[in-house]
Amino acid sequence: YFEKLSIYCDRYAEQIPVTFCLVSIGHTEPMWNQFVNLPWPDRLMFLISSSVYGSDQQGRLLRRTLMRYVNLTSLLIFRSVSTAVYKRFPTMDHVVEAGSVADIRTSQILLKITYSYS
Predict the structure, then answer these.
(1) 83 in the same domain as 55
(2) Which family, according to UniProt (predicted)?
(3) pLDDT tens digit string along 24-51?
């Protein structure tokens, strides 16, 4: 199998220049770094669930509220990086209408915030 792969690569090595491969790697690396540095809510969820104690109503509500804020923060970050998410939520009104914000005070604060994307 390795010999067939070597022959295949040797056959097409002259068609694709090495500089093209190196340049394409150089362009994808910043995008990959951006993807790797995005926050993942599940890691923070594990930290919150292990740090916030209580099996009663108050502990459960606190964990749920913290995770809602984490999800809202992730939504705002993805909104600033992804055009698909930005098209789905072009304004903060759309975020509030979608139900991503359950607290009325938080939604009022978010509606006052203006974002400038350049």
Answers:
(1) yes
(2) Belongs to the anion channel-forming bestrophin (TC 1.A.46) family. Calcium-sensitive chloride channel subfamily.
(3) 666 677 777 777 777 788 888 898 988 9
